[in-house]
Specification:
The structure is a homodimer of 407-residue chains. The first copy, chain A, is of the alpha/beta class. Chain A folds into two domains: 9-204 and 339-402, Rossmann fold (3-Layer(aba) Sandwich); 230-319, formyl-coa transferase, domain 3, CATH 3.30.1540. Helices cover 40% and strands 13% of the residues of chain A. Chain A is built from 17 helices and twelve strands. Chain A starts with 8 loop residues before the first strand and ends in a 5-residue tail after the last strand. Chains A and B meet through helix 1, helix 2, helix 5, helix 6 and strand 6 of A and helix 1, helix 2, helix 5, helix 6 and strand 6 of B.
Chain lengths: 407, 407
C-alpha cells in the first residue's frame, strides 16, 4: 500500500457499499481504518456472494486492509466503547443515522475537533439506496435500446451501484478536506453527504439538468450512442461486439482511416449536402454514419479490425462479460493495479486490487486482506483505550466484545 | 460555498468530464481552482448541449466556481506560462498526457514538492473513455431485461458516465492525500489515476470479480432485480413505475405490511416448503415474490400505495424522466443542495448545485457561476506571475493570452 495517509487513524461504523468504500480508499492509501461492527457482523456481513463456508466475497473486498473490532452494539457498554474509540481517533466515517448513539454531537462532546462524515439517504432524512436514488435521477429511463418507444420504454437499472461508489469516493475527499481544515484552524466539522444529493448533484454537474430545462423536454432516446458526438457499439464479421467513439478531430480521422471509409463518407456528405466535420453534424447524422461503419465492420474479422484500430491509435474496446474481464490478461493479470492474493478470510485466492492511483517513485506494496470479524478487537481496545488484558477478557466473557471469528 | 479548502490554489489543465470534476469538487469546497485552457477553449468547450448562442451547458456546470485563464497552448510562450503557473501553485490536476509539455518532471524541476494528479486512459498508456472502459468492465452485458437470452443479449451502455465521475471524485481525494503527505513531510507526489483502473478496481472492490471467479461463470441475468436480496421495479394500478427494495429484516417486514401480503407470503412459504426469512431465500424465490408484489401493486393507485410505503418508513422511489426530476420540488426546488441561479455564461437561469456535502454550522453560501473563457487571465497573470499590465497587454496583442470571451 502507498503510505500517503500514514499516521491517520479513522473509525468506520459502516455497512453496505458507500460507507465501507470511503474507508477502503483511505486504507489503501495507508491510513489505519478500524471498522467497528456489531459482534455478529454488520448488516452487510452476509451480503452475496457467500462462499460454501459462508464468507462474503463482497465484504472481504470492500473491507480490504482495514482492522476489525467486534462489540455488542446493542448494549450501552458496547456503544460507549465505539463512541470513545471515535472520540480518541477524532475521525469518523459512518452511515448510522444522525439520531443514533453515534450522532456527531455525542462524540464531539468528548472531542470538540472531531471530523465526522456521515452518509445519509435523502437530504430530508428519508431512507434511500443506490437503486432508489437512481430511479429518481432519470438515468434508468434513458438507458436501453434506441428503438424502444419512449412512451412505454421500461427503466433499465444499472448493475453497477454507481451512486454508492461515487458517494464513497466523495466522502473520502470530504473527510480529507475537513481534516485539512482542522489541521489549519483546529476546528472540527460535521459533514453529511446524502446519497440522493450525490445523484441529483451529478445530474446537475453533468449539465444534463440544465439541458432538460433548456429543451423543456427529455433528450431523445440514444440507445448505446454517445451523446453529442460520434460513437456506438458495432459488431465485426465474426460476431465480436465493440465500442468505439471519436470526440476529437484526430480521433475521427483515425477512425475513418481504420474503417477505410473516407470515400463513403464523402459520398454521404454529398448526398446530405452537409460537411460532417465536427461532433455535432456527426451526431445529427449518426444513423447514416452508423450504417456505413456497421457495413464495414460486418466485412472484417475482429482480428483485422482491432489491428487497424490499434494501428491508428484509436479508442475502442471489445465488450466482455464480467467473467471474461476477470480473467483478461490486459485488464487484470498483467495489470499492476492487481497484486497477488493475500490470505483472504474466505480462503479463496484471486487477484486483489490496490489503490486506483499509481505513484511513480513510491512503493505500492502488496494488497492486504480484509480482517476476520473482531481480529483486532484486543489490539485496538488495548492500544486505543488502554484496557488491560484482564479487562478485555472480562468484556469478551460477558459478550460485550468478541475476538476473531476465524475459527 | 463552504471554505474547508480555503487557501488552497490548484491549476487545472483539463478537458471532458473526469478531470474537470476533480477541480469542481475542490472549488465547491472553497479552493481556488484556476482552469487554464487553450485560447479558443479546450476540447470540451463546445460539448453538447449548446444554447442558441453557442454556450455549452455541460461546460458551465462542470466548471462552476473556477477561474479561467486562456492562453495559446500551442505556442512555447503560452506553454511556459502554464508550466510556471503550475509550479507556483504547486498543485496540478490534468488529463494531458505524461509525455507532454506538462509532464510531472517538467513542472517539478521548478517546484520539487509539486503534487500532480494526472488522469490517464488505461494503465499501459492506451487511450480510453468512459464508454470504452465500461465495455471492458462487464457491466453493459449485465444490464437490460431479465428475459433477454444471455447468449444474444446486447450490451446496454450507461447514460451516466459513471467512470468519469468516480474518477473525478477519486482524484480529488488523491490530491488531498498527496497534499497532506507534503504538509507532513515536505515531499511532492506524482499521482496517476487511469480511468480503466478505476473501472476494473471497482469491479474488484465490489466483490464481483471474486464472485465470477468463484462461480467460474457469469452471474445469471437479473434485469432490474437487486442482487442477493429482495428488490425490483413494480407498476401501480395507474401505471406509476417505482423501485422498492429490502436489505434488512426491518425493511422487509415494513414492505410486507405496506403491501398487506403477510398471508400470501405465508401461503407461498407453505407451498415452497421454505421460510423466506432472509435475503438469500427471498432472492432465490424472487419470482414467486415478485408475482405477489406486482399482483398487489396492480390493484392499488400510486397515491394509496406510496402513502402506505411512506407510513411504514420504507425505501422506495418513483421513476422519473430526467426532465421530471429536474423540476421535482422534493429533489430540486426545495432541496438545499441547490441554490439560486448565478449569472451563468449562457445567460440561461436554472438551479445551481452546491457541494454534495452539507456541513451544519457552516455557511453554504450561494453557488457561483462558471467563468467566461479567459475571464481571469489578467488577474491570474498579474497576481501569480507578477506580470505588469503592459506585459499582459503585449501578450494579448500578440495572441499569446486572451481576455474574457464574454462579448
Amino acid at each position: 500500500m502507498y503510505q500517503l495517509l500514514h499516521g491517520l487513524s479513522i473509525i468506520e461504523a459502516s455497512s453496505f457499499v458507500a460507507s465501507p468504500t470511503a474507508g477502503l480508499y483511505c486504507a489503501q492509501m495507508g491510513a489505519e481504518v478500524i471498522r467497528v461492527d456489531h459482534k455478529t457482523g454488520g448488516l452487510d456481513y452476509d451480503r452475496s456472494l457467500l462462499t460454501a463456508e459462508g464468507r462474503s466475497l463482497a465484504w472481504e473486498n470492500l473491507n480490504r486492509a482495514k482492522k476489525s473490532v467486534a462489540i455488542d452494539l446493542r448494549s450501552d457498554e458496547g456503544r460507549e466503547l465505539l463512541v470513545e474509540l471515535a472520540a480518541r481517533a477524532g475521525n469518523l466515517i459512518t452511515n448510522l443515522p444522525e439520531r443514533s448513539f453515534l450522532g456527531h454531537a455525542a462524540v464531539a462532546e468528548r472531542r470538540p475537533d472531531l471530523v465526522s462524515v456521515r452518509i445519509m439517504g435523502w437530504h430530508d432524512g428519508r431512507q434511500a439506496m443506490d437503486f432508489t436514488v437512481n430511479a429518481a435521477s432519470g438515468y434508468p429511463l434513458m438507458c436501453g435500446p434506441e428503438e424502444w418507444d419512449p412512451a412505454t420504454a421500461p427503466p433499465v437499472n444499472q448493475a453497477l451501484p454507481a451512486w454508492d461508489f461515487l458517494t464513497g469516493a466523495y466522502c473520502a475527499f470530504a473527510l480529507l478536506a475537513a481534516i485539512r481544515h482542522r489541521d489549519l484552524t483546529g476546528e472540527g466539522s460535521e459533514v453529511r453527504v446524502p446519497l440522493g444529493d450525490v445523484a441529483m448533484g451529478t445530474v446537475a454537474n453533468s449539465g444534463s439538468m440544465a439541458e432538460m430545462l433548456y429543451r423543456g423536454a427529455d433528450r431523445e432516446r440514444l440507445g448505446n450512442s454517445v451523446w453529442g458526438a460520434f460513437g456506438r457499439d458495432f459488431v465485426s464479421r465474426d460476431g465480436v461486439r465493440f465500442m468505439v467513439a471519436a470526440l476529437t478531430e484526430k480521433q475521427w480521422s483515425g477512425l475513418v482511416a481504420a474503417f477505410a471509409l473516407a470515400d463513403d463518407i464523402a459520398a454521404l456528405e454529398a448526398e446530405l449536402g452537409v460537411r460532417l466535420d465536427g461532433d455535432l453534424p456527426r451526431f445529427d447524422h449518426r444513423h447514416g454514419l452508423f450504417a456505413l461503419f456497421q457495413g464495414r465492420a460486418g466485412t472484417l474479422a475482429w482480428h483485422d479490425l482491432s489491428a487497424r484500430l490499434a494501428a491508428e491509435g484509436r479508442t475502442f474496446e471489445r465488450y466482455r462479460t464480467m467473467y471474461e474481464a476477470a480473467r483478461d490478461p490486459q485488464l487484470v493479470t498483467n495489470n499492476p493495479l492487481f497484486g497477488p492474493s493475500p490470505a483472504n478470510p474466505s480462503g479463496f485466492a484471486y487477484p486483489a486490487a490496490r489503490s486506483f492511483a499509481n505513484i511513480p517513485g513510491r512503493t505500492a506494496g502488496d494488497p492486504r486482506p480484509a480482517p476476520y470479524l473482531g481480529e483486532h478487537t484486543e489490539e485496538v481496545l488495548a492500544e486505543r483505550l488502554g484496557l488491560t488484558q484482564a479487562a478485555i477478557g472480562d468484556l469478551v466473557q460477558r459478550g460485550v466484545a468478541r475476538l476473531s471469528d476465524r475459527d
